[in-house]
Amino acid sequence: MRSLNILIVPPHDLLTHPTPSRLYHMGKMLSRTHNVFLLRYPGHPLADPRHERTMGCTSVTFTPVTTKNLGMYYLLNAPGIYAALSHLMKKVGIDLIIHANIVPSYIALKLAETHGIPVICDYHDHLPESVASYYTNPLVSRIAHALVFDLVKRNIRMSDHVITNSRTLRNTIRSAVALDDEEISVIPNGFDVDLFNPMPREEARKAIGVQASSHLLLYYGSIDVWVDFEALMKLVNRIRGVYDRTLLMIVGLSHNSSMRADLDRLVGKYRLRENVLLLPPQPHEKVPEFVNAADIVIAPYKNVLKNYVVPLKILESLACGRPVITANISEYKTWFEGMPVVYYDTQEELERETIELIRSYEARKPELVRASQEIRDRFSWEKTAMQYEEVLKGLCK
Fold first, then answer.
1. How far apart are CA 45 and CA 124, in angstroms?
2. Taking the complete model, does pTM exceed 0.90, yes or no?
3. Which end of the chain has fewer CB atoms surrounding its CB within 10 Å, N or C?
């Protein structure tokens, strides 16, 4: 396949977001054989410039209007985004656009119409639920959900092809927008196989400063409304009555400024100040130490459409040889059949299964070693990129 000029319109600033996301890895892989142009979001509310990464691309940027409000950021900067993309398309012959946003995506789509450029929508996140989580007022949240879903459907209709990372999202989009089978592809997430490797638990705990004899539970990821944190608090409250020195570590980033306060309130409600440690997002290269330090990684996702994906946290935890317990979401069983992933439906099941996983940890080690190797064989960002390339070939013949 010939080298293409590819523009990526991402959901956030890929190079300064605390966690390298799916499109970051895709852009990095594609830049090995193509010329990748990345729309940057300078001054983005979630950016952490202290840990800026690279991906072998050419940045497309503008002078920002700064705001701490995520929703307003894209609206206020729409003129700057339009000017930057318009200039790029006049200067460079863009062959393909990959987009995963709302307002910036629409701008790119309208310019693509003018210049006759094929477009892929990477729908790896159910955006209506993500945007609705920015707002604490229930009425405003519902209005945002409905409005964003209408905008998303419009952007999808304007795209030439859609890529999702789950069968459930594929079926949802296909039904909502009436797409034919050949217009939508399912390409699951991968993970960094070089970074997420098993290491001795004691060594990992020493690296992050946790007592070796503690029973350590870990949740890491988004601290947002689509995660059932009260279930976690109830779980720790139950387990500390069974095992001494129980510690739950919660590591992550929230898209809603009130979530940290809500989480702190829950810790106080269940009197867990000595048993719960809340940490901000960690440098990505440190995350495997936290995973390897844990006895169990817990993913208490709520049964909402946004969670019907292939979660990076489950992939990364299995790659490190750690057992995972998560909500009984059918999409996960499709991808992780035969893996050491335990599912629960009720609070009682969550508590019972967690206690059993702690008790049987040593006996499960051979299964965890096998799963670590199997997950590497099945999932990686390299494999995801290869599937992406097949879609590109079909659109850019």
1. 21
2. yes
3. C
Check the CA dihedral 298-304-306-308 and report its sign. positive
Note the Cα 143 to chain centre separation in Å: 24
Q: Across-strand partners of 96?
A: 6
Give the type of residue at 69. N
Computed over its alpha carbons, how large is the radius of gyration of the chain? Answer: 21
Alpha carbon distance 107, 86 (integer Å): 9
Cβ pair 27, 58 in contact under 8 A = no
- Average of per-residue pLDDT across 53-82: 94
Class of domain 5-190+380-395: alpha beta
C-alpha separations of 78 from 72, 103, 144, 152 in Å: 10, 7, 18, 17
Beta carbons of 372 and 314 less than 8 angstroms apart: no
Q: How far apart are CA 128 and CA 270, in angstroms?
A: 32
* 58: three-class secondary structure by DSSP: strand
Domain with CATH 3.40.50.2000 in the chain: 5-190+380-395, 201-378
Tell me the β-bridge partners of 163: 122, 185
Least confident segment among 115-119, 203-207, 306-310, 351-355: 306-310
pLDDT at 1: 66
Q: What is the pLDDT of residues 252-269, one digit of tens each?
A: 988 777 888 889 999 999
Rounded to whole angstroms, how far apart are CA atoms 319 and 80?
41
- Amino acid 210 reads V
Query: Looking at 61-75, 137-151, 195-209, 280-294, which range is the least confident one?
Result: 137-151
Average pLDDT, the chain: 92
